[in-house]
Write a structure and sequence with these properties.
The chain is an alpha+beta fold. The protein has two domains: about 1-105; about 115-260, Gcn5-related N-acetyltransferase (GNAT) (Aminopeptidase). Helix content is about 30%, strand content about 30%. α5 (about 135-145) crosses α6 (about 160-165). The longest helix has 17 residues, at about 215-230.
Length: about 260
């Protein structure tokens, strides 16, 4: 049986997802932050005959995530896919292999999933590193991200980005380095839970690369989370050069993740 979850299911679904807290970081973070009564998020779950969870499917804005503790996919979810469409869906590679045949008109990207539970020594407090707190900060951040080709922000409206960024501040932190009133490098976290957070949007302006900005930001981020908060950090990568940097900083590959995008 598959049904839409409600507030009364929060404890049971989180207990289920926390059996693999690293892989379920997005699911847990979205549920802990937004719950079940916001218009942009819905959580569905599959149960066996005894009422035990078999899988979970979350819809967050234009995104979707599928998780099951076994390598399986119930095709009854397809009716939900049709009624509640999405532009992106992702999950552990071994699970998405069962979902992919049903995703007509989607491309997919295979990524490495990494986690860091310790961090390298830093040079102390870096006074150049700032935190996004205001709408002006978010607008300057958008100016940087829209020139980074892999983020595909060229068609995104700045007002929409600013609104979504300000709404997501409770889910993580965004650090940046600024030069001449222009953000030149940034790194952020999202889906922060009681145990970990996901690193996203690592970016440096093309005119300011090879100066160590991203490494400084990552080291500060790792200090904030691993040393000060006692939480691990996770991230995805598919660029081998980026992978070498992350591994040097202390991240270890723990698996793979597939992201599918509607074309």
């Amino acid at each position: 049986m598959i049904r839409l979850l409600t507030e009364k299911d929060q404890k049971s679904v989180l207990d289920y997802l926390y059996h693999e807290p690293t892989y379920n970081i997005f699911l847990i973070g979205d549920i802990e932050t937004y719950g079940f009564n916001v218009p942009f998020q819905r959580i569905y779950a599959e149960f066996d005959d005894e009422g035990h969870y078999r899988s979970v499917f979350l819809r967050y804005r234009e995104n979707a995530i599928y998780y099951a503790h076994e390598k399986r996919f119930n095709e009854e979810y397809l009716s939900i896919f049709n009624k509640d469409p999405f532009n992106y869906i992702s999950g552990k590679s071994e699970l998405m292999a069962f979902v992919r045949p049903h995703l007509v008109g989607f491309s997919f990207k295979h990524m490495y999933f990494c986690e860091a539970t310790s961090c390298v020594e830093t040079r102390g407090d870096d006074t150049e590193i700032k935190t996004v707190k205001t709408e002006d900060d978010a607008r300057h951040l958008f100016d940087l991200l829209q020139v980074i080709d892999e983020f595909n922000y060229k068609d995104k409206q700045p007002d929409v980005f600013v609104k979504e960024k300000m709404e997501s501040l409770d889910m993580g932190i965004t650090l940046f380095i600024e030069k001449n009133h222009q953000i030149v490098s940034t790194v952020a976290t999202t889906a922060e839970t009681t145990k970990n957070a996901m690193v996203v949007a690592v970016a440096t302006h093309p005119n300011h690369r090879e100066r160590g900005y991203a490494s400084r930001l990552m080291k500060r981020l790792m200090t904030l989370y691993i040393q000060e908060k006692g939480k691990s950090l996770c991230l995805f990568y598919n660029n081998p050069d980026a992978g070498k940097i992350y591994h040097r900083l202390g991240f270890k590959t723990i698996g793979t993740w597939d992201m599918h995008q509607r074309q």
